[in-house]
Amino acid sequence: MQLDSAAGVSKPWRLRPQVSFDNAHVEAKWRANMAKYASGEASTEEPSQAEMGDMFVPDNDFGETQFQVQQQKCDDEDSERRRSAIRRHSSILLSSYITSMGSEEEEGSWPPNQTKKSRLGKLLKSRQCETVIAIIILFNFVLMYLDADARAAGQKPAKWQTISMSACYWVVVVEFAIRTFVEGRQAFSSRWHQLDLCVVVSGFVEQLLQWIDFDSRGIGGIISVLRCCRLLRLVRIVRHLNHMRELTRLLEMTGSCARTLFWAFILMGFVMTSWAILAVEVIRPSVVELTDSRGEWADCERCRRSFDSVFEANLTLFQTIVSGDSWGAVALPVIEFRPWTAAIFMGSLLTIVFGVLNLTTAVVVDTFAEARAKDILRRGNEMESEER
Q1: What is the C-alpha to C-alpha distance for residues 149 and 168, in angstroms, rounded to an integer?
Q2: Residues contacting 123, CB < 8 A, separation 6+
Q3: Fewer beta carbons within 10 Å, N or C terminal of the chain?
Q4: How far is CA 381 from the centre of its chain?
Q5: What pTM value is reported for the model?
Q6: Backbone φ, ψ for residue 40 (5° rounding)
Q7: Which three-class secondary structure string do you get for the chain?
Q8: Half-sphere exposure of residue 275: CA atoms within 13 angstroms, side-chain side
Q9: Which of 177, 225, 220, 226 is nearest to 199 (CA)?
Q10: Phi-psi domain of 310 (left: phi exceeds 0; alpha: psi -120 through 50; beta: other)
Q11: pLDDT-based confidence at 272, cuts 50/70/90?
Q12: Which CATH number fits domain 254-379: 3.20.20.140, 1.10.10.10, 1.10.287.70, 1.10.530.10?
């Protein structure tokens, strides 16, 4: 029961207006009682069971009336709606907060009074400008492909290819100059800007040497190295295709596991060299005996010297174990001649393939997951796009 604040009497029929009833007769009686109460005709005495109808008659073994059941059902629905609204609102606030942190960092890189720098900065960061620059980089890649084929055939590239290559280079120079003007000294703290600086310097030196005609002076090796530096321009495409979420994520994850792959190759080289030293000491006498006494590998000069040195043994193990090439050409004759040498061949196979290589795969996957968990800003953008 609830006490009326004005009269100080108990009024058990002060019900919620959103209550619904399964029985139309009960609802009609409830509305009539509510009308009496609103007009002041209701007495201070508690209404009887007959006056209130069947709404307060117990409907189950627990003594609950129809009104109480309906009221509890409405309360549960209201609570569930409030909880879902709170969860949705919290998700929107979290994504908005995360993305606002990134936008504040971007907006804070330009002074508020320098409108020209702000406009140029917004132009560089626009999707249209980034798409155009990415297309130019891909076109430059096609030109490098044609240039390498022409030089390999002993021909000079077509004139339009040379002009197009120079145009692509000067587009990079203009972008680098505008970005330096907009961001000032802070630009050189970015690794992307440092990469752009390497591309600009190497391209300038290459064009200068071509203008001096170093190829005719027999010092073309320097220009070949500088031409290989053109491939650095392809890395810049990651910077200008950040709106392509899947491609950007794939390239960023590949870059994040580069250190892991480097140490994995070092570990594999250490393990393989250990087995190569053991093979030179143990297997080489058997190979020499097979070659001299039985004339084995008469038509395979590489097989006869497969374990002559640690370097040759490393190449043999990499060829037979990692690449899976010609396993039976060297290993099977030696194992048939000296069965105990199978321990070295099988041991190297198990430790390198099922040990180091599988361990490398597991570590790379773990690195991907860790980099994904740290990418808070991108997750915020994804949450915001999903809410929209």
Answers
A1: 19
A2: 129
A3: C
A4: 13
A5: 0.53
A6: 85, 5
A7: CCECCCCCCECCCCCCCCCCCCCHHHHHHHHHHHHHHHHCCCCCCCCCHHHHHHHHCECCCCCCEHHHHHHHHHHHHHHHHHHHHHHHHHHHHHHHHHHHHHHHHHHCCCCCCCHHHHHHHHHHHCHHHHHHHHHHHHHHHHHHHHHHHHHHCCCCCCHHHHHHHHHHHHHHHHHHHHHHHHHHHHHHHCHHHHHHHHHHHHHHHHHHHHHHCCHHHCCHHHHHHHHHHHHHHHHCHHHHCCCCHHHHHHHHHHHHCHHHHHHHHHHHHHHHHHHHHHHHHHCHHHHHHHHHHCCCCCCCHHHHCCCCCHHHHHHHHHHHHHCCCCHHHHHHHHHHHCHHHHHHHHHHHHHHHHHHHHHHHHHHHHHHHHHHHHCHHHHHHHHHHHHC
A8: 23
A9: 226
A10: alpha
A11: very high
A12: 1.10.287.70
Query: Which residue type sits at 89?
Result: H
Q: Long-range pairs for 116-124 at CB < 8 Å and ≥24 separation? A: 117/181, 117/182, 120/178, 120/181, 120/182, 121/182, 121/183, 124/175, 124/178, 124/179, 124/182
Sorted by where each begins, the domain ranges of the chain are 116-243, 254-379
Tokens of 327: 């396993």
> Is 314's pLDDT higher than 90?
yes
Classify the C-alpha dihedral 358-344-277-283 as positive or negative: negative
Q: Which tokens in the block code for residue 20?
A: 């619904």
- Tokens coding 247: 């491609």
Q: What is 116-243's CATH number?
A: 1.20.120.350
pLDDT of 220 higher than 70: no
User: Both tokens of residue 295?
Assistant: 């004339």
Model confidence pLDDT, tens digit, residues 98-125 = 555 544 444 444 445 457 778 887 887 7
Same fold, 116-243 and 254-379: no
Hunting for tokens 């009609």 — which residue is that? 28
